[in-house]
Design a protein that fits this description.
Blueprint lengths: L5 E6 L2 H5 L2 H14 L6 E6 L11 E4 L3 E3 L6 H11 L9 E3 L2 E3 L6 H4 L17 H6 L4 H9 L2 H11 L11 H9 L7 E6 L8 H8 L1 H15 L3 E7 L3 H16 L15 E7 L8 H8 L23 E5 H13 L1 H5 L9 E8 L5 E6 L4 H8 L9 E6 L5 E4 L23 E6 L4 H15 L5 H18 L5 H17 L3 H5 L2 H9 L1 H10 L15
Length: 541
């Protein structure tokens, strides 16, 4: 096996590539050639490393020195100073609060995280299955199909307390057990990779950075419930994730880890991709099934639930990307290992895409139950430009806001609903005092109005009427009666809509009315927008 003196891990996630990462990598390759170092330095293109706002990034091992905000012009200095003379280029190191950090693990952004799902993201080349296998990839699948019964596998997942990370938090082991008990000649596993929340990219980053962990989780799920076929439903606007999944599936088949008779056993399981057109409603499981079957992406009435009658009328387990990426590590290290993180009712970790008015935006993973304050201030570095934290929107357009007075709330499936918010799939948008909460509610509601499939009246007509009222208020024409009507309409839509989209669409309006009612009243009574965002005069003008 060939060894190298230096491993240079260059982030090739979507954000770093969009920031010009390819240009830096190409320049680095050229500099290595010119200095005769191609036999001493190995360039590894990885998935997302996390701190996306500081990209393009590179980590140099064995020391773990991390360079940020790289440009092609930096390649020459890094090669001559670091690779040849052993002197880090200090001007390119991570700087925060007047401090400079040499290695990745020293930075507050990473030191406060617990990376289980993201363990390989930014560390391995996702297009090389041997790097995944070197990190223990597919060992859990091998153990399951050679040493364990399907019921053994289900028991470990149930004991771990793993809950679906797509938003609803349904117990994964229970879902697998229900599917296992179904009598059917054919069963299916579907990976829900239809991530459509504004500002959310957790699932995309996992698929770009560690696609094999998801494939392995799907195969283990297939073994547990008796399925031989899996589909990954992914939106077509994720081209890099699709490319790396296609490579991973091909390599896994060639290695005997997917397909017929996996590892010489009687267990067969294979995976195909299904590309969606980017409809938010197709994140709902029955709409996703319809779309996978080639039909219009509309939800079905439940029951029957997919584990009873799903894809093509057969028992079907649908888990999202992050849920499946947890499976192999639980099999490898056991339920107790997983339960040491998180809370009693919400064990494990959660990946969030931390975006908005925060100093260090990026992809993070923390134990469930971690206070919002820790995420925003310790990991995200606080609010930029001297502004103050006002609220955070969790759960994407279907979620709700958490105001500053609840900054210490534990982020888990039990506490967020008490404030009118939800965990969702992990989108976390931070807002400062320059954000108008009425305008924020209007933005998210407009998104769900546009994305409603129109099948049921409460969602199709009700959310449109709520948006009309919000537009009336933000233009200075609202009345106090409108606020009451907003609440009444929102609650009716939640209770009567057919699927999760309509049942959660009013959340941003209802939660901002609950926590920021004074702003609504200012718009209605004083005809001013306190944040000077809406089309009316600000309070001080």
């Amino acid at each position: 096996m060939k060894t190298y003196r230096i491993h240079a891990l260059v982030c090739a996630g979507t954000q770093c590539l969009a920031a010009g990462g390819n240009g830096f990598k190409d320049a680095l390759v050229e500099e290595l050639k010119q200095h005769g170092l191609t036999e001493e330095v190995l360039i590894v293109e990885t998935g997302c490393m996390g701190s996306c706002q500081l990209g393009p990034r590179m980590v140099v091992y064995p020391e773990g020195i991390m360079y940020t905000r790289l440009s092609p012009e930096d390649a020459k200095e890094i090669v001559e100073e670091d690779f040849l003379r052993g002197r880090p280029v200090t001007r390119l190191l991570w700087k925060q609060d007047e401090k400079q950090f040499l290695t990745l693990n020293e930075t507050p952004f990473f030191a406060k995280q617990t990376r289980i799902v993201l363990r390989n993201c930014g560390f391995i080349n996702p297009e090389d299955i041997t790097e995944c296998i070197a990190q223990g990839g597919y060992e859990s699948l091998a153990r399951c199909i050679t040493e364990m019964t399907p019921k053994d596998v289900i028991k470990i997942i149930k004991d771990s307390g793993l809950r679906g990370r797509g938003g609803a938090g349904f117990p994964t082991g229970l879902k697998w057990e229900l599917a296992n008990k179904q009598i059917s000649d054919i069963k299916y596993i579907i990976c829900n990779a239809d991530e459509g929340d504004p500002g959310a990219y957790m699932n995309r980053s996992v698929l770009e950075g560690d696609p094999h962990s998801v494939l392995e989780g799907m195969a283990i799920a297939g073994y547990a419930v008796g399925a031989q076929k899996g589909f990954i439903y992914i939106r077509a606007e994720y081209p890099l994730a699709i490319k790396r999944l296609e490579i991973a599936i091909k390599q896994a088949r060639m290695s005997g880890l997917l397909g017929k008779g996996i590892l010489g056993t009687n267990f067969s399981f294979d995976v195909e991709l299904r590309m969606g057109a980017g409809a938010f409603v197709c994140g709902e499981e029955t709409a996703l099934i319809n779309s996978t079957e080639g039909k219009r992406g509309e939800p079905r009435k439940k029951p029957p639930y997919p584990v009873e009658s799903g894809l093509f009328g057969k028992p079907t387990v649908i888990n999202n990307v992050e849920t499946l990426a947890n499976v192999s590590i639980i099999i490898e290290k056991g339920a107790d290992f997983f339960r040491q993180f998180g809370t009693d009712k919400s064990p494990g970790t959660k990946a969030f895409s931390l975006v908005g008015k925060v100093n260090i935006a990026g992809l993070i993973e923390v134990p469930l139950g971690t206070p919002l304050r820790t995420i925003v201030f310790d990991i995200g570095g606080g609010i930029p430009e001297g502004h103050t934290f006002k609220a955070a929107q969790t759960g994407g357009p279907s979620g709700g806001v958490i105001p500053a007075k609840h900054l210490d709330i534990p982020m888990d499936y039990e506490n967020l609903p008490q404030l009118g918010a939800i965990m969702g799939s992990g989108g976390l948008i931070v807002m400062d005092e320059t954000s108008c909460m009425v305008d924020v509610a209007k933005f998210f509601l407009k998104f769900t109005v546009d994305e409603s499939c129109g099948k049921c009246v409460p969602c199709r007509e009700g959310t449109r009427q709520m948006l009309n009222i919000l537009e009336k208020i933000t233009s200075g024409l609202g009345t106090m009666e409108d606020l009451d009507l907003l609440e009444k309409l929102g609650n009716v839509i939640k209770q009567t809509s057919l699927c999760g989209l309509g049942q959660t669409a009013p959340n941003p309006v209802l939660s901002t009315l609950r926590h920021f009612r004074d702003e609504y009243i200012a718009h209605v009574k004083d005809k001013v927008c306190p944040a000077n965002v809406c089309s009316m005069k600000a309070k001080n003008n």
